[in-house]
Amino acid sequence: MWIVRLVSRRVALGVITLIALAAAVFFISTLVPGDPARVAAGENATADQIAAARENLGLDKPVIIQFFLYLGRLLHGDLGMSISTHSPVTEGLFDALPTTFELVLMSIILMLVVALPAATIAALRRGGAGDQALRTSAVFTAGIPTFWLALLVQFFIGGKLQILPLSGAVSRQYSVDRVTGFMLIDATISGGAEAGWDAFLHLLMPSAVLAVLFGAQLFRALRTEIIRVLAREHIAVARSKGVPPLTLVMHHVLPNSIGPAITILGVQFGMMVGSAVLVESIFALPGLGSYLTNAVGSADVNALLGAVLVTGLVVVTASLVVDLLQAVRDPRVRAAQNGGGR
Amino acid sequence: MTQTLPTSAPTVSRWRRPLTALAQIRGMDRVVAIVAVCLVILAVIGPYITPHDILDANIAQASKAPDASHWMGTDEQGRDVFSRVLAGARYSILGSIGVVIGFSLIGVLVAAIATVGGPVVDEVLMRITDAGLAVPSMVLSLALSAAMGPSLNSAMIAMIVTGWPYTARLLRTIMRETMVLPFVEGALIMGVTRRRLMIKHVIPNSLDVLIVKWAGDIGNTILVLGALSFLGVGAQPPSAEWGAMIASSQAYMSTAWWAAFAPGMAITITAVTFGLLGESLQVRLNPEVSGQFTRVGGKS
Amino acid sequence: MTPDPGTPGQTAPGQPAQAAPALDVAGLCVDVDTPAGRIRLLDDVSLTVRPGERLAVVGESGSGKSVMARSILRLGDTYRTTGSIKVAGTEVTRLSERQMSRLRGSTVAMVFQDPLGALNPLQTIGEQVAEPLRVRGTGRQEAERAAAAILEELGVARAAERMKAYPHEFSGGMRQRVVLAMALIAEPQLLIADEPTTALDVRVQEQVIDLLHEVSTERNLAVILITHDLGIVAGFADRVAVMYAGRKIQDDDAGRLFREPAHPYARGLIEAVPRIDHRIEHLVGIPGVPPHPGARPSGCAYHPRCPFRMDICEVEVPAERPLPSGGTVACHLFALEGNAS
């Protein structure tokens, strides 16, 4: 079965990647000035207490042993305690992740809604006025710093024009119980459609800001790919069979162009999580980004490194999902999986 | 219509048009190149040509809208925004160039070792590279820079440490392709050592790709470096680094939005210029490379 | 440079009243705009194909033969076309894109060079063969039945079962049968085969050419075989048109052309055949290389390579003239009657 082979190979690779990442993170943590045992034992600890903490954390052992102890703790989902929130890092990240996912997924939807038709039109009318205009604007939007755009959009649309809410995940008037962690869903459960709509409006501006830069990248990649597919012989063949233009685009051009777009989205997913840090801190969304910026403010190393590892996990998972999607989409990829290793 | 010309030579008049067309394209690219060079020059001399002192706070002059004396207005402490943007070019542009040079060196080195080092070395290095690619450079440099203690130097080091995997991946692919080219294989058979081959042929052969990537990378790096400063792990106030300028004017958007607007615009212009430079170099130097790496490089 | 009205001296020019020719091209010029300026790919070509006739169009790469094929189906979006193209009596240059796509497949169809590239990698064989019927509103089951039938007819064993397979699971020869099935399923009157065997190995080449011959006879299907390979032309074509540098330079009955080629270029082609494995991409018999479309010589484009070059050849483009044998030739050697050596 192709799916078993694919998943097992990718998971194995992913685990190796994550171990390498853990090693890097562990290395960084040893760079941090200060004595972690002292930090772990608390501010007013006695020398004995610090020594006990040191033994407890395995800090008296050789570095390699320390690393394996660290890996062991990671396997149990133990990322240590956050010194700023005084709660386990795992817990804090678990609370924060859904908000970030919601933001990124919403952005991806917006990106696709805009970039896919725009790229198709630009590619079909290649060299025309619309294509030129779209390409030029894509070049310029790809150079706008996300955090700056977020500030401007927040100031003008949220502040001056007051079209959309300034910041936050939902209006104060709705008390939302945490069920799934996804605000759109939780708000709808707690406060009905009205609260859900309110949460949606709050999400719109941040996700649109996040979508601008990545949408421009996606547009450019898609346009190039569609042009490449349009030049392929089977498109001419389909036309020579009498396939009308719309059917041609929907059945032949787009399905063949979407593969690279999926790959790019997979790469972008991780970067969008990274950029979400900026957007969340500006729009006061309680996601991974806000957690990270808090951690930066209080030099909370465990929280910082935990966030790095979790982001790595997210990216590795995203690339697994991408490979699965590619295999579902393309019979040749499935055949390659069945044919055994490369 | 075609003139009658000697049989052997193809008609010249037909090729004059393409040449003029090419010259015109070059003209457009030249504008981009000139702007890029100007930006770099500005980054070098910027701090010496500022009309006002960049640290001279004057509360009486605070949050003034742009006028004849302060072309871009003043910020919340009454400092001249235009002067600060000029002076900040040094940190943002030269800082980014430094970062790109740093991670390119590491990337080339890793790719070269992976290419000549045999399958085991290659596999190990590529796994490490993949691990580096697995975390968005934004997040990793944020953590690293915060762990080292926030400063512009920390941010730059963090970006060098997290930026090289993209270069290493791309260059390894290119070097692999070069290694199987006939002239390289021939040299190997002739007994040229792999190391000598790498220095004499393979690395020079990858330079085209590298130069294209540099231009795009500088654009990306300015965005990320600005973002790191904005988040407080890069240049610290009162530095005139553009990201730091935006960060400190953030709270005063409603009274002096221009103080945040100008440095952001400067970042955008720089990023777009270097992005365009990359594109035109790409078209000119190696049109066959799909350019996915430059296109989806680590952006903020 | 006025286009010839009709094609003078055609062998048996079937009466227009009887049945419209499968293809009637008159004064066709095709230009493209490139960054290097406008380039003429096809220059004043006229050609007629009777229903059921098998015409081979031969020439080196860059001679414009594929451009002609694509402009007949209007597949070249960048082409600027002037002149007239009538397919089964319909003037295609004036059709809307919608009307054109209705004509494609059902009146005129095409088979392409690379049978793997010609198939959509993401759709099953069955979907693709049935598609020409499906886009014309035929029900799924009926279209699939027709697809299975035509695949079976073209020699794909267990067709109904293998229709669920994807293109990459087929061999080159089988793929070309699939491509042919797609072209034939909506029962066109004219089939244009553009280098259909170039990507195949020699044994499969013969099979495909035989298959083309067979369907042509059985269905009274007019076929235009575009090729640079004279070796496959001999047993297949009724008539041969030779192209050089965007122009038709000779058009004659296949047998006569092979026996007594009139144009010096055609002569060179035929003399070259036995020596170089039937390929004419690199000619032994003709010195020099064919000109780039953007830099064609003045006058007769062949004059720099022609052993019989005269002064007039560098200045004036030779017009098509009837040959005593019944074909046409465009060469100044034939300007004076009986001047052929």
From TrEMBL, chain A:
SUPFAM superfamilies: MetI-like. The chain crosses the membrane at residues 12-32, 103-124, 136-157, 199-219, 258-283, 303-325. InterPro entries: BPD_transp_1_N, MetI-like, MetI-like_sf. Keywords: Cell membrane, Membrane, Transmembrane, Transmembrane helix, Transport. Residues 97-326 form the ABC transmembrane type-1 domain. It comes from the Bacteria. It is found in: Cell membrane. It is a multi-pass membrane protein. Belongs to the binding-protein-dependent transport system permease family. This is ABC transporter permease.
From TrEMBL, chain B:
The chain crosses the membrane at residues 31-49, 93-121, 133-161, 173-193, 214-235, 255-277. PROSITE patterns: ABC_TM1. Gene3D superfamilies: MetI-like. It is a multi-pass membrane protein. InterPro entries: BP-dependent_transpt_permease, MetI-like, MetI-like_sf. Its main location: membrane. Keywords: Cell membrane, Membrane, Transmembrane, Transmembrane helix, Transport. Belongs to the binding-protein-dependent transport system permease family. This is ABC transporter permease. It comes from Arthrobacter horti.
From TrEMBL, chain C:
Its main location: membrane. It is found in: Cell membrane. The keyword Cell membrane applies. It is a peripheral membrane protein. One of its GO terms (molecular function) is ATP binding. It holds the Pfam family ABC_tran. Residues 23-270 form the ABC transporter domain. Keywords: ATP-binding, Cell membrane, Membrane, Nucleotide-binding, Transport. Belongs to the ABC transporter superfamily. This is ABC transporter ATP-binding protein. It comes from Arthrobacter horti.
